[in-house]
Write a structure and sequence with these properties.
Layout: E1 9-11, E2 24-30, H1 49-57, E3 59-61, E4 64-65, H2 71-80, H3 110-116, E5 120-126, E6 144-148, E7 163-165, E8 169-170, E9 173-174, E10 192-194, E11 197-199, H4 205-220, E12 225-229, E13 239-241, H5 242-245, H6 254-279, E14 286-292, H7 316-319, E15 320-321, E16 323-326, E17 335-337, E18 341-342, H8 346-353, E19 362-364, H9 370-374, E20 384-389, E21 392-397, E22 400-405, E23 408-413, H10 429-443, E24 456-457, E25 471-472
Helix pairs in contact: 4-6
Length: 473
């Protein structure tokens, strides 16, 4: 059978004239939220009424994917609308002060496009796309920035009287508590920044990001705006204040209790942002996306049920994520959309909604989702979705999913086996061959990674059955 052609959505950016009814764009990108860590899919014990409300009032995607199972490449795909392998951003960049890795300057970001279209653009939260000034959000289309440039940082002074934190255990070994007998040394080379200046932030970081997002909306509600809000939560370190910790006395495992509290703080913040839209009378015409940058980790305190494994892997738990889209003026409430979609679709959907006129400039791998949601396009948005991290890769076609890792194939029919337990590679070599050919065709449009892998996971928690897989990231 011949390979199915890759679907490429070509968008050519130009400046478009802003109209008063152009929608505001709000992208909420949360960090390491498991598929079952919120109430979106009815499978958690953590109350998240505000996240749930987004799903009830908009479109809930049951098969929403990101382009990478780890933070930074996923963000590069989101902000460019292109598979990050097209421009070499395949692995995590180092966040050390001397690191020269970052999203290539050749790439146009969604912020660039919307700024050129007349939008006011702002970012609040985690960047993780390069620490050098040339990569700074203010140089990538964002007029204002408040957040962190690095992969992570402390949410709060862990030695504060109202702070609760958990020190990880690795393979049965308890890491020494760094705060037990010494004062907190501050955020060091992982500071919070306003623009390009490091600032002292004493509020719990999730609350601080929510505060700054609300301030941005209050200040800019009179003109179309784009706000990118990539929260750090609930990514580690597991740190929270008693205000949220005390909501979960019934959870006895300390790590699980703190993680639940972090998700609760995140949900509160999202509620405050939605309230700000309503107070400023712009909620009706704001296009909101809510997505996690990858699945929850394989640690016990997060849940990707009913999906297999999690972050850093190509199994569904690593790449299928909570995914919601809401635009009251254009999209009916309470829609459940089952065909696969991708975070790559956010760029073209937002840009076209903002009045972008296609002209030859750049190729996007995402598609404008609105025609599919409105029913004018009947086919699924994507014929194939692809992933690559070094020698490990995966492809999705219809209900089939093929993973290549550890020098072998895993083939699953996700309609019958969403938990990816029944490897059908030996039973359906015809499907393996077809998906391999589709992957090879897609991969010819990619380049080699422009920096080496940041690390790898290969301990038993990441095994597939009894098979060791070295997951590079």
């Amino acid at each position: 059978m011949r390979a199915i052609p890759i679907f490429v959505f070509v968008v050519f950016l130009n400046s478009c004239q802003i109209k008063i009814d152009n929608p505001n764009i709000l992208v909420i990108y949360v960090d390491d939220l498991g598929y079952c860590d919120s109430e979106l899919y009815g499978c958690t014990k953590i109350p998240t009424p505000n996240i749930k409300r987004l799903g009830e009032e908009g479109v809930l995607f049951t098969q929403g994917y990101v382009s990478s199972p780890v933070c930074s490449p996923s963000r590069a795909g989101l902000l460019t609308g292109r598979y990050q392998q097209r421009f070499g951003h395949e692995f995590l960049p180092s966040s050390t002060p001397d690191s020269q890795a970052g999203m290539p300057l050749t790439e146009t970001t969604l912020a660039d496009a919307l700024k050129n279209a007349g939008y006011v653009t702002g970012m609040v939260g985690k960047w993780h796309l390069g620490v050098q000034e040339r990569f700074h959000p203010n140089n990538r289309g964002f007029e204002t920035f408040y957040g962190i440039l690095t992969a992570t940082t402390d949410y709060i002074d862990p030695t504060r009287e109202d702070a609760k934190y958990w020190v990880p255990v690795y393979e049965g070994y308890q890491i020494p508590d760094p705060y037990k007998d010494s004062p907190w040394q501050g955020r060091g080379d992982r500071p919070v920044m306003r623009g390009k200046v490091a600032v002292e932030e004493n509020d719990y970081l999730t609350e601080a990001f929510s505060r700054e997002a609300v301030n941005f909306i209050n200040k800019n509600s009179s003109r179309p705006f784009f706000l990118y809000l990539p929260y750090l939560a609930p990514h580690g370190p597991l740190q929270v204040t008693e205000k949220y910790y005390d909501r979960f006395p019934h959870i006895k495992d300390e790590a699980s209790r703190i993680q639940a509290a972090m998700v609760s703080a995140l949900d509160d913040g999202i509620g405050q942002v939605i309230d700000a839209l309503e107070r400023n009378d712009v909620e009706e015409n704001t296009l909101i996306f809510f997505v996690s940058d990858n699945g929850g980790g394989v640690a016990h305190y997060t849940s990707n049920d009913p999906l297999r494994l999690g972050k850093q892997t190509m199994f569904e738990g690593g790449i299928r994520v909570p995914f919601v889209m809401k635009w009251p003026r254009k999209i009916p409430r309470g829609v459940v959309f089952e065909p696969p979609v991708s975070a790559l679709d956010i760029f073209p959907t937002a840009y076209v909604a903002a009045g972008g006129v296609p002209r030859e400039n750049m190729q996007l791998d995402g598609v404008d989702l609105l025609p599919y949601l409105e029913g004018s396009k009947k086919l699924p948005p994507h014929e194939n979705l692809f992933w690559r991290a070094g020698s490990i890769w995966a492809v999705r076609e219809d209900t089939w999913k093929l993973i290549y890792a550890a020098d072998r194939y895993w083939l699953f029919d996700l309609k019958a086996d969403v938990g990816e337990q029944n490897n059908m590679a030996d039973l359906r070599p015809d499907v393996v061959k077809r998906l391999q050919e589709s992957y090879d065709e897609w991969n010819r449009g990619n380049i080699a990674p422009i920096w080496p892998p940041f690390g790898a996971k290969s301990n038993p928690m990441f095994f597939v059955g009894d098979i060791e897989v070295i997951w590079t990231f």
